[in-house]
# Entry
Amino acid sequence: MGSEDLLWEFTRESRVAYFSMEIALRPDIPTYSGGLGVLAGDTVSSAADLDIPLVAVSLVSRSGYFRQSLTRDGEQRESPDPWDPAAHAQPLGARVGVILEDRLVWVTGWLYTQKGLRGAGVPVILLDTHLPENAPDDRTLTDFLYGGDQVYRLKQEMVLGVGGVRLLAALDFQIRHYHMNEGHAALLALELLRRTARPGREIHPGESSYDLPRVREMCIFTTHTPVEAALDRFDYALFRRIAGMPVDEAMLRQLAGENEVNLTRLGLNVAEYVNGVAERHAQTTRRMFPGFTVAAIANGVHPRTWTCSAFARLYDEHLPGWQCQPERLAHAEYRIPADAVRRAHADAKAELLAEIAGQGPRFDPSRLTIGFARRMTGYKRPDLLFFDLDRLREIARRHPLQLVFAGKAHPRDAPGRSLIQALHRSLAAVGPDIAAVYLPNYDLRLAKILVAGVDLWLNTPQPPLEASGTSGMKAAFNGVPSLSVLDGWWLEGHVEGVTGWAIGDGVQHDPQIDAVSLYEKLERAVLPRFHAEPHEWTSVMLATISRNASLFHSDRMMHRYAVDAYLH
Ligand SMILES: *Cc1c(COP(=O)(O)O)cnc(C)c1O
# Structure
C-alpha cells in the first residue's frame, strides 16, 4: 500500500499520540540511544500486538546516535551511524512549518509501520527537516540524536513537540490523548495551548486566554529519571531567542518554572495523568516535585523482541500462546522440564561465546559468566564490582567466573567516558584468574545476545537513581537471574534466592558497603549454587521466568496505560 492508503487506514479511528525523542524500532534503524528508546519501541510493538490505537512520533535521526569503537585502553571513539529512511519507511507528502531562531523551518516525515501479532499495525511518524527549502543548517536538525549543544537540543525538541503536533494535524490524525515520553516531548503542550488561545476573548481577573484544563485532559506525562542533571532545562533568554514565545511568557513561567524552562516541570503541570516507571521511582519523583500526583506503572519489555530463539521454541512447545498472553509464562516452573531449560541456555551461551571469540578472548562454557551492559554513566556504578580487586580475584580462584561488559557513554559525559577506560584497566587487572572482555558498540543486536547468553545479569546503580532499569527484565525472558542493587524494578521483581539476589538494602550507602554486599552474595550464594547445585540453579532460572518474565512484559504495561491513562 502507498502512504496515502495507509494513512487513510490509520486516520479512520482516533488515536493516542505517543511522542518520544528516541525509538528503537529494529536493529538496523539506529534512532535510539538506550533504555528510553528501547522502551518506546517495545511500547509500540505491544500496542500493535494488542491493537491499541496509537500513533508514535519521533525524529528520523538520519545519522543515528553514534557507532562506538574503543581503543585498546578503552578510549571511546564515535562515528556517525547513518541509515536510509527510504529503505524502511514511506515519505509523507505533508509539510508543516516551525519558526526557529526567527526562521521558518519546514518539517516533513516518514511513515514506518510496526506490525503486530494479529496483523494490525501501529504507524510511527519519523520527523525530518532534510528538505531543499530549508537553510543548510536547518536540514541537519534531525540528523544526530542528542547531538550538538543546548541550541541544537532545543531546536530538536521544538521540531518534535510543535512540528509533531502540526504534522499529525496536517495528516488528518484524530488525536484523543498526547502521551509525552519523558520531558523531551513536553513542548508539544505549548502548541496545544496555543491552539486553545482565544485572543479576542474577554479575560476576567485570574483567567487565562488559554484553556489549560482542556490541554491537561489531553496530556499524559511519563517521567523517566530522578537524576537532576539529566532533566532538560533552558534559560529564558536562550528559549526566547530560539523558540520565540509560543505562548505568553507569564504562562510559560507558571508552567515550566520561574527561573528556567524545566521540561519535566512543564510535563508535570500540563498533564492530568503523570507516572513514574516503578513504584520507588514514583515516590522519588513526588519527593523531587512536591504537590504533584504521580502514579506508578512499572516498565516491561516486549516478549517476542527479547526472547532468544532457543527459549522462544521452548515456550512455543510448553506454553503455547505465550506471545499473545505472556502471563502464561507464570506456569514455566510447572510445565517446562529442567533439562530443556539447561539445553536452551547452553545454546544461548554458545552464541554469546562465539560473539566474544570474534573479539579475541576464548571463554569457558562451564564458568559462571556475569554480564553488565548499559549506558556508561556515573550513577550506574559499573565499577562497583572492581572496588576490591584482590577480593574479586580471590573469589574467582575458588569459584571460576568470567565477565562481559558493554555500553556507550554519551559523547559529552566525560566521567562516563573515563569509566569505560577505568573498566578496561580493571578487566585487564583481574586476568588471568578471570577472563574478561568489553564488547564495543552496545546496541539492540548485541543486547539480545548478551541478556540471553550470560548466566547472571549484574546491576549496581546508586539508589534511588535507577528509575526502572529494563535489561534485567530482558534477561528474565531468557531464564537469566539478576544480582542487583534494590532499586527501580528490582524492588518489585526480586525474591531473594528465588528470582535472583539483592545487593545491599536499597538505601543510599557508601560504595564500599554495597561492594562488600556484592562480594558476599557472589561468594556465599551465587557461585556455590551455580557450581555445586546445578539443579537448584535451574530452579532459579525457571522461577525467574515464572515470576519476573510473566510480569515485566510490555503487554501488562500497555494494559495499565490503556486503563489508567488512555481511557479517561
Ligand atoms: C535495554 C537496553 C538498555 C537499557 O538498559 P538498562 O538496564 O535499563 O540500563 C540500553 N541499551 C540497550 C541497547 C538496550 O537494549
